Structures are given as C-alpha cells and as structure tokens.
C-alpha cells in the first residue's frame, strides 16, 4: 500500500522517497536556492572595493591549530573557510574558488555579481516569467556585455615602458583593496619586478614567498635568487662558488639496521656487527656512485644519516638534507637540475646537474637560510615578507599572491581596461542598448542583467561611506555622454578620470568574473527540485 505525506502547502502527495529523505519542489526549491546564494553574496559584499571591511574567521573545535584566527577580506579565503549546508550557496563558493585558481583576483566580485543577478532574477520570476526566458535574455545580455568589455580594452604590449606602467597600475589597483594598500607603491614595484623576471613563462613556481616575523612591511624585499629555508650540514663549507648541484630524492638513512616485519636471529654480537658493516658498505657504494657525478652540492629530499653525510663532507661536497619536496622542485626549476633517485648513469651528469654562481648562508631576522645567487634559470627570485605578526604576514602573502596572479594573467593576455566601475557601467549600457532591439519578455531580463552590473559600483561606493546612488547616477550620465575612462574616485567620493588616477584592471579578470557569475546564476535559476537523501544511520548493538 502506498504511503502518503503532506507537502509544504498542505496537499496530500504520495511518498516516493524512503525514510527521512526530503524533497522540495517548484517555488520552494527555487526560493531556497535564491536565499542561500544571496546570503553568500551579502556575506562578502562588505569586503568589495578599496574601502572594503575585513572578516575575522575563527575555527571551531579545540587544540593549538584551532585557536589560530584569520583576518582577511579575500573573498576566496572567506568562502573557503565557512561551512555551508545550502546547495546553491556551495555553487557560489565553487565559482569563487575557480576564479581564484584561474586569475587570482575577482573572487568577491564573482560571488557578488552572481548574487545580484539572482536578486534580479527573483523579481522577474515573481512576475511569472519562466526561468528559460530569463536565461535566454541573460545570455544575450552577457554576449553584449562581453563585446562592450573587449571594445574598451587596450593593449600596450608593443611598448615595453608603457606596458610596465600598465602592470604597475594594475598591481596598485589590486593591492588597494588589500592589507598592503598603504604600501601599495612599494609592493607594486616588487611584484612587477618579480613577474617580469619570468620573461612571459607565467610559472609562479619560480617566485618563492618567505614570511619572517619582525620589522615592518616596508622591510620586505625582493631577492634576485633562490632562498631555501634549510641549513647546511655540520662540517661543510658555508660558501660555494660556481656550484654543480645534484638534487635527489633518495633514502640515505639505512647505514643502521632497519629490517621491518622480519625477525633476525644472531648467535653473537659479531654477527650483528657484520650486518651493520654490510649496511655501511652498501651506503658507501651509494655515496661513491653519487661522487662519480662530481657534484659540489648534494641536496636530498629525505634524511641523510651521519655516515654518508661525513663521507660526502670529507670529499668537500656541501650537503643539505630534509629539503621539503616543494623546495627541491623550485630549486631544480631554478638551477636547471633534474631530481634523481638512482645514480647509475654518471655519463648524464651534465644534463642532471644544476648550476649556480654562488651559494651562501645568510641571516633573515633571526633565522639562517641558504641563498642561491646567479642560478642558470635566471627567472627565479624570492620575495621576503617582514611584518609585526603572523596574522599580518599571512594576509600580506594572500594579497601579494593575488597581485602576482593578476600580473601573470595580464602578461599572458596583454589586454587592460580601466577600473573604478567604468567597465561595469559600460557593460550595463551595452545591455540597455541591446534590450531596445529585443521584442518580448527577454528584454526585461536583459535590462535586469544591466541592473545587476550597476550594483557593483554601487556597492563599492557604499562600502566607502559615500552617497552611492548619487555617484553611480553621475557616473551613468558620464558614460552615456561617452566620457572616456570615467569611474569612481574613492579618495574624494566623486566621478574621476581613471587614466589620470592610474586605476587599471586586467581584462582577463573581468571577463572571467562575467562568464562565471552568469553561468552560476543560470545554473541556480534552472533548479526546480531539491532532494536531500536520508542521513546514514549506524545501528549500535
């Protein structure tokens, strides 16, 4: 006999799902999706723009790691750290993560834009407009907005000096909404110099960021070389010129008896000594194979015991042990070395070994580190961040990483646009113009897309404590007039010239945010049914 249940509005409906599974249909499912997504948008909305506020994230639970708080205004960091039960909200978190991985910045923008699109979509839905009609209109609007965005972009890559100035302006704009805003000129130069050393490769692995507590943020510096946070083994030289570097990931700790899961019966201590001697001979043979490569520096991912360490030091080879895997990957990339595990082909030494003009031990703060200068792959560099506390250093690292990612995206795409709400208002104008040529309800959806885009400069101005409605209306008038580079001057709360103020943004970041936000909003708008599976129960005897 069929089971019957009561739905949310009191209708009797057959119960298809088993146990405690829950199904929400139609308007209730859509309402839940809208509310969840808009709640996430509202959560990070106040962090948007150069005057955005910070959030304090405190982990749940007990223990030393659980007591570490995070202070940040980075959208991806905030959304990655919170626990969400609403499925639509999780979609916004996923697009924010994707934005962070793709271009490094615009993580808050993409979540807020998606939320504003859904806010406008909800109004249209309440007017009995079908979701598919809304989506069709949004797609026309997105194409028009993207076309307008590409039309206002410019490319100075042919002029090296002008392009570097564009990169500096983009770095300053990116850092202006971060913790480093008061030192943005200093860190913008630092980030641009680091990225230009990559010579277009875009491999951020060559840029190492080291955090050392102490001093102030202004004490941070860019070191033209590679810095490894390890120490040189005792008995080895502390300075090495024209080094031949062998980077390995091999066990060097079995000169002692290490037989796991096996019982060995020895009738005397002499037998034990013979086993130890055999292990030592085995290790000595391995060291001899390493020495045939004629390295002057041996770097190993794993532990090196005293006996092989002494054998290498006696031959004048500098030894660095327990280098973390991330460290040796960067070192191998910087010096042109290969990471090897076996040493049976000394004839390949010239291909396997990396080179470096100078290796020395230096002090940063109170810690000793190893500096590699004059690496064969000259793209490598290290940024050393100084700061008063671990919280400041962590946020400074996140801010600088975002700037580096945006700069790398700009170097690859080479196209730049003006910031300060200029691109959003231009795209909104393009949506309004497109709506005038469309018949039917789709025109309302296109206009709604434009309204959602206008909300971004509105929120930025509102976060600065200005009269957002007046500023955005003034900006809208300037855009309609065709005033070039008009945008919001966040220092004075007026409409200013973005070219004169140096407010530039990477086209790739804007384009990615536009596409990701519209696709996420479309996906959520399509939902008309949410099914929650019954919780798994564990029967206790």
Derived structural class? alpha+beta
Q: Residue ranges: pLDDT <50 for 5 or more in a row?
A: none
Separation of the first and last Cα atoms: 31 Å
Rg of Cα set: 30 Å
The total strand number stands at 20
Task: Return the average pLDDT rounded to an integer.
Answer: 84
Largest beta-sheet characterization: 7 strands, mixed
**Form type:** globular
Number of distinct helices: 17
Considering DSSP H and I runs of 4 or more, what fraction of the residues is helical?
40-55%
Strand proportion: 15-25%
Compact summary:
With 541 residues, this protein is an alpha+beta fold.
Commentary on this structure:
The protein is α+β, with helices and mostly antiparallel strands and 541 residues long. Helices cover 48% and strands 17% of the residues. Strands 8, 9, 10, 11, 12, 13 and 14 form a seven-stranded mixed β-sheet that branches. Helix 6 crosses helix 7 (184-196) and helix 13 (422-435) packs antiparallel against helix 14. The model has no long low-confidence stretch (mean pLDDT 84).
Which terms summarize this structure?
three-stranded mixed sheet, alpha+beta, 20 strands, 48% helix
């Amino acid at each position: 006999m069929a089971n019957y249940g009561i739905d949310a509005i009191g209708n009797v409906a057959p119960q298809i799902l088993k146990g405690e599974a829950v199904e929400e249909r139609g308007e209730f499912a859509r309402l839940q999706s809208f509310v969840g997504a808009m709640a996430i948008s509202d959560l990070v909305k106040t962090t948007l723009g150069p005057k955005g506020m910070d959030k304090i994230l405190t982990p749940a639970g007990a223990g030393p790691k659980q007591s570490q708080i995070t202070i940040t205004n980075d959208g991806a960091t905030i959304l990655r750290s919170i626990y969400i039960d609403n499925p639509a909200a999780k979609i916004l978190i996923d697009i924010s993560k994707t934005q962070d991985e793709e271009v490094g910045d615009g993580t808050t923008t993409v979540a807020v834009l998606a939320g504003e699109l859904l806010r406008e979509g909800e109004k249209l839905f309440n007017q009995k407009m079908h979701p598919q009609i809304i989506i069709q209109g949004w797609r026309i609007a997105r194409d028009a907005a993207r076309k307008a965005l590409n039309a206002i972009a410019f490319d100075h890559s042919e002029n090296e000096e002008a392009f570097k100035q564009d990169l500096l302006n983009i770095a300053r704009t990116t850092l202006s909404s971060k913790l480093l805003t008061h030192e943005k000129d200093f860190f913008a130069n630092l980030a641009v110099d680091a990225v230009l050393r990559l010579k277009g490769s875009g491999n951020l692995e060559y840029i190492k960021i080291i955090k050392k507590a102490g001093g102030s943020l202004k004490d941070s510096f860019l070191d033209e070389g590679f810095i490894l946070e390890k120490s040189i083994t005792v008995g080895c030289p502390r300075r090495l010129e024209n080094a031949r570097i062998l980077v390995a990931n091999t066990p060097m700790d079995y000169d002692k008896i290490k037989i796991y899961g096996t019982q060995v019966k020895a009738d005397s201590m002499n037998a034990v000594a013979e086993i130890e001697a055999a292990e030592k001979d085995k290790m000595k043979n391995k060291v001899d194979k390493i020495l045939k490569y004629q390295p002057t520096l041996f770097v190993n991912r794993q532990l090196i015991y005293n006996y092989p360490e002494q054998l290498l030091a006696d031959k004048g080879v500098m030894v660095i042990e327990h280098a973390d895997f991330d460290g040796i990957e960067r070192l191998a990339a910087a010096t042109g070395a290969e990471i090897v595990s076996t040493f049976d082909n000394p004839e390949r030494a010239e291909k396997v070994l990396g080179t470096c003009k100078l290796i020395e031990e230096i002090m940063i703060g109170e810690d000793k580190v190893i500096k590699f200068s004059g690496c064969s792959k000259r793209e490598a560099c290290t940024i050393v961040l100084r700061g008063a506390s671990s919280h400041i250093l962590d946020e400074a690292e996140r801010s600088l990483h975002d700037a580096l990612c945006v700069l790398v995206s700009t170097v690859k795409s080479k196209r730049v646009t003006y910031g300060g709400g200029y691109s959003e208002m231009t795209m909104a104008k393009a949506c309004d113009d497109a709506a005038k040529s469309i018949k039917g309800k789709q025109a309302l959806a296109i206009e709604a897309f434009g309204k959602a885009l206008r909300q971004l400069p509105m929120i930025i101005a509102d976060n600065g404590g200005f009269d957002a409605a007046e500023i955005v209306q003034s900006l809208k008038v300037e855009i309609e007039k065709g005033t070039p580079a008009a945008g919001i001057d966040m220092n004075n709360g007026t409409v200013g010239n973005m070219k004169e103020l140096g407010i530039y943004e990477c086209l790739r970041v804007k384009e990615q945010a536009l596409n990701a936000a519209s696709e996420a909003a479309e996906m959520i708008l399509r939902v008309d049914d949410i099914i929650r599976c019954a919780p798994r129960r564990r029967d206790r005897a």
